[in-house]
Amino acid sequence: MVFAEKLIVWQKQHGRRGLPWQGTRDPYRIWLSEVMLQQTQVSAVIPYYERFLHRFPTVEALAAASEDEVLQLWSGLGYYARGRNLHAAAKAISQLGSFPRTAADIETLPGIGKSTAAAIAAFAFGERAAILDGNVKRVLARHFGIAGWPGEKAVQDTLWKRANRLLPKTDIETYTQALMDLGATVCVRTPKCDACPVSRGCVARKTDRTSAIPAPRPRKALPQKAVTWLLLHDRGQILLEKRPAPGIWGGLWSFPEAPPKDVNGHCRRSFGCEVRSRKTLETLEHGFTHFRLRIHPLLCQVTRKPEAQSTRSLWIDVQDVFEAAVPTPVRTLVRRLNGIRRFSR
Predict the structure, then answer these.
(1) How far, in Å, are 84, 87, 108 from residue 246 at the CA level?
(2) Least buried of 159, 257, 276, 322, by fewest C-beta within 10 Å?
(3) 34 tagged catalytic
(4) Catalytic option among 5, 34, 69, 107
(5) pTM of this prediction?
(6) How confident is the model over 322-344, as pLDDT tens digits?
(7) β-strand partners of 287
């Protein structure tokens, strides 16, 4: 049996079952799951996926929603550009009148790359298209002894050629799922070679290089960035500011940033507030893929002046923050605030 045939047989006997996005040909549901699963564990995705479908059961419902509604449901899942692109793509699909049916056309939608487009086309429409997500790269690199970091163009090009050559003539959906499942459950960082249906032909196993293939991303020291966040509060409400997109947490509501040496002036000019008292809170660190962010929170009790309506800032009851589209560090700081007796009064 060739590689693809072995995986198809294995999938029918040992593949994952019962995931909420399986057993459907609905491209919307498949697309939603594929986007959410990017760089995110299945266990974390399932509750978000189910909430999304309950709130937005169709692509038309998602297209009709506001960005705030979408990001509110996405809040906590991370990589927020995925949520913004999901919303933008839903609007594009709604204008088209139907979901694109080929991988090439699906790839033109915002936020959908080549591998994701192929997965959607295979599962929804049975198109014979190759996928190459992170798990699949690991499977193919090990099996065929393709050394190097998969992020390098030469290595990635080699993997794409191999992925296309391996495509079976039939049963593309089962084969695609098999590749995903093998990479997620068997050919993991410490591989379970005894459970692998293609271990006999695996170059990395035969040459004792499963720990070296694929090569890890070259290590670089992550740069540090520091910001001062103003936690402006008055009468049980706090001020949030909408972050610009693109950018980190684009479109989400966050605490305003301010120059640490001109807090009073910044509050007065930007928000019409006079600072009555201020307290430095414990520093909070948050990691991103390419840098680490050190947040210096400054709790400021203020007096508010009547202000013109703004679409970029809002006063919100503290307990309502957890229902808003906010990044994780904002939730963390609000939980800390709830423990401060003077603030809670």
Answers:
(1) 9, 14, 19
(2) 276
(3) yes
(4) 34
(5) 0.85
(6) 989 999 999 999 998 877 655 54
(7) 292
